[in-house]
Amino acid sequence: MNQYDVTDNGYFGRYGGAYIPEILQKCVEELRINYRRIIDSEDFKNEFDALLRDYVGRPSPLYLSKNLSKLHGCKVYLKREDLNHTGAHKINNAIGQILVARRMGKKRIVAETGAGQHGVATATVCALMGMPCVVYMGALDVQRQRPNVEKMRLLGAEVVAVKSGNQTLKDACNEAIRDWCCHPEDTFYLIGSTMGPHPYPDMVARLQSVISAEIRKQLQEKEGRPTPDYLVACIGGGSNAAGTIFNFLNDDDVKIVYAEAGGKGAESGMTAATLSIGQEGVLHGFRSLIIQDNDGQIVEPYSISAGLDYPGIGPLHAHLVKTGRAQALAINDDEALAAAYELNRIDGILPALESAHALAALHRLTFKPTDIVVVTLSGRGDKDMETYLKHAPQGECPTRYEDIKNNLR
Ligand SMILES: *Cc1c(COP(=O)(O)O)cnc(C)c1O
User: Fold this and answer.
1) Tens digit of pLDDT for each residue in 216-229?
2) CA distance 132 to 112
3) Residue 197: strand, helix, or coil
4) N or C: which end of the chain has fewer CB within 10 A?
């Protein structure tokens, strides 16, 4: 066991654990006892690997961007999770968990979703496996993310609009947990990120770790060494970040940089910068850093990117930042927008708004010419077209980051 491994009862340092109601004890315990045995078995690995290859399209390319490299004075590689089936990294986890659910004899899937990306990934794998699927989504998000709601329904999922609280992701999580409490015997809760009670954060990290396993192999082929100098990933709940760093945690000279959503500024009150301003607390079954007020009430998070506005953070990441192994940067809306237009303009790749936070982080760092930097491009930007059209600089879009940032609408 190494210093960053989860303990038997689910802790990464002070963070993690399983804070759950009595009624869920039995099914969470059943999962805790079985998840490693299942995902480490030959039978699981064979089925998972075959689907990742032929259904998702893995391995995803590790693309050396000559234009970003020139701009930042080092070698910049993009790990192309945007090229996966359904357009992001989330499908890796959804496939993995539905294979676990089937091996545990579960008959029905519930999930939460914010922007709808995890809901679409879950509805997709439920269609593939012929399992009934209920997706809980805040009523406000149902309105804001109409195309993803329609996609889920076409895939055969039932989408429940949650009208409690602020009618967003946090409330959808509460409602999914409530459903699970009512059907603990036959239902599997398919969680979309490195959050929730143990063993979910560790299980999701392991299912996404294919990202870093591929990066090691691809760097060895392209650079003659398996490790980069920097790994950069955006972070909401922390699943693409966990997958990106998983197989590098013991390589002390690999620097880890998280780009979280600063929103309108980490100190502005309109932010989702959990690692920067979060305080310790318990939410959705685990202990971590949480954006809360002095009375311990959750403060509604804000980000221009719907996939990053979660008030908590995966316990592994809270631990890595608090112990100094990883660095967190709060990237504001305007920086993320500018980085997205920039990549589109200089490389012809329109990234998801979430991923654009990781690209913007490059402008906050200084590199040596010999540095090798890997940025995980967690998803594609098609889903964000409306936002991109609204904020695009008038006329022809400039190519320089600063020029774009100063001309956003
Ligand atoms: C959901 C999402 C994220 C944020 O989730 P993590 O669990 O932190 O990875 C990031 N990028 C994209 C494209 C997403 O859809």
Assistant:
1) 999 999 999 999 99
2) 15
3) coil
4) N
- pLDDT tens for 252-281 read 999 999 999 999 999 999 999 999 999 999
CA-nearest residue, atom 7 of ligand 1:
239
Assigned token pair, 230:
């920097």
CATH number 3.40.50.1100 is the correct assignment for the domain at 26-52+89-204: yes
Atom nearest to 194 CA in ligand 1: 7
Q: For 72-110, what is each residue's pLDDT tens digit? A: 999 999 999 999 999 999 999 999 999 999 999 999 999
Which residue ranges have their beta carbon within 6 Å of ligand 1? 88, 90, 117, 193, 234-241, 307-308, 352, 354-355, 378-379
Q: What is the Å distance from ligand 1's center to 88 Cα?
A: 8
Residue 266: name the closest of 246, 285, 291, 237 by CA: 291
- The total number of residues shown for the chain amounts to 409
CATH no., domain 59-87+209-407: 3.40.50.1100
Q: Is 229 within 8 Å of 49 (Cβ atoms)?
A: no
Closest CA to 193 of 229, 233, 153, 232: 233
Question: Where in the chain do CATH 3.40.50.1100 domains reside?
Answer: 26-52+89-204, 59-87+209-407
| 163 is known as an active-site residue | no
CA-proximal residue: ligand 1, atom 3 (nearest) = 307
Catalytic residue among 75, 90, 151, 170: 90
Q: Which DSSP letter does residue 91 get? A: H
Phi-psi region of 250 (alpha: psi -120 to 50; beta: other; left: phi over 0): alpha
Answer yes or no: are the C-beta atoms of 56 and 210 closer than 8 Å.
no
Nearest C-alpha neighbor of 272 from the set 264, 284, 281, 282: 264
pLDDT at site 144: 83
